[in-house]
Design brief:
single chain, seven-stranded mixed beta sheet, 20% strand, 11 helices, Rossmann fold, globular, 44% helix
């Protein structure tokens, strides 16, 4: 009987563990703060969605918040998932991307006591509604600017005047980064030719690789790619066909591409989300656009320690970063004036 009892208990506990493995639930604590995150992709995509998830984890750790998330959310589910979290009593709902804007606007009107954050890298986005919706924006223009500056300096080392920028979907969040890239490249060299393309996918690695190969064949010696999981398609292209890659949120890939991935401009949305969560906890929340860039430590440029050209241009790029931090270079003003 004792053996039977133990077997039943082991089976029960095993089922309980499986039941707690749902991808929609992250942590539960005794905190009064409940925060939910809605993502269009996977939490381990090594890109935009992973940064959002890391922000949720940071909020849970810093403020002992109860958290939940829903990954790979499809457009037809946006309203339903967001409304369910609001109905279930979550104080803060983070919709990670401007794709969720219409759904957030619809649901936020029904739940005025819930705070909704729409995170993006589109500086031009007008998200905050003055009531209960705020935009949390990593400055995509500054991110792209640093990528473009780096690409131009590397191209100079190569004796080249042609670089390329490839993004996934042609949505403002990606477009502002591509625009910033062109702005940065021409800041270094006004004669720099910038090839631009959008693949229409953030997940199709082969499609981005094919576009990068096309740019290489057209003479681009440096190719920047930004497309979440598909970003590495650019790295595969320069690895196979020659040239240098610049990534976005790709610092973790330096070891995988030691000879061709030179730099990565990263936006730390996890830090941006943590800053706004602090404002909420301290009753300083405003339904505005929170825009964070180099000065706040949200946007940065990181360099490979093994790709040869990275070592040659690093000091020049870091001087640009210092000028942005000091206000000597106002990237937003350059962007608005172009």
């Amino acid at each position: 009987m004792k053996k039977l009892f133990l077997m039943v208990m082991v089976l029960f506990l095993g089922l309980a563990v499986v039941g707690c493995g749902s991808s929609t639930t992250d942590t539960k604590t005794d905190s009064d703060l409940k925060v939910a995150l809605v993502l269009t992709g996977a939490i381990n995509d090594k890109g935009w969605n992973q940064k959002g998830y890391e922000g949720l984890v940071a909020i849970a750790a810093e403020y002992k918040a109860e958290t939940a998330y829903n990954e790979n959310t499809q457009p037809g589910q946006y309203n339903q998932i967001i409304r369910t979290y609001a109905k279930d009593g979550y104080d803060v709902i983070i919709a990670h991307g401007t794709q969720f804007s219409d759904a957030v606007i619809a649901v936020a009107a029904e739940y005025p006591d819930v705070k909704f954050l729409v995170s993006s890298s589109d500086r031009s986005a007008q998200i905050g509604d003055g009531v209960n919706i705020a935009g949390v924006l990593a400055d995509g223009v500054e991110q792209g600017f640093l990528q473009g500056v780096t690409a131009a300096y590397i191209a100079q080392e190569q004796g080249s005047t042609k670089v390329g920028a490839i993004a996934g979907l042609q949505i403002p969040a990606f477009k502002t980064t591509v625009d910033g890239f062109a702005l940065g490249a021409k800041y270094v060299n006004p004669s720099m030719q910038v090839l631009e393309a959008y693949t229409g996918s953030t997940d199709d690695v082969n499609k981005l690789k094919e576009q990068a190969i096309t740019f290489i064949q057209q003479g681009a010696t440096v190719v920047m790619s930004t497309a979440n999981a598909a970003t590495k398609g650019g790295f595969e292209a320069t690895l196979d066909k020659g040239g240098v890659s610049i990534g976005a949120n790709s610092s973790s890939q330096f070891a995988t591409y030691p000879t061709n991935l030179s730099a990565s401009a990263d936006n730390d949305m996890s830090k941006a989300l943590l800053i706004v969560a602090g404002d909420i906890v301290n009753d300083k929340f405003e339904a505005i656009n929170y825009i964070y860039g180099v000065k706040e430590g949200v946007v940065s440029i990181n360099f490979s320690t093994t790709e040869p050209l990275a070592l040659k241009v690093k000091a020049k790029v870091e001087a640009i970063v210092a000028d942005i931090e000091s206000g000597k270079i106002d990237v937003a003003a350059l962007y608005e004036a172009k």
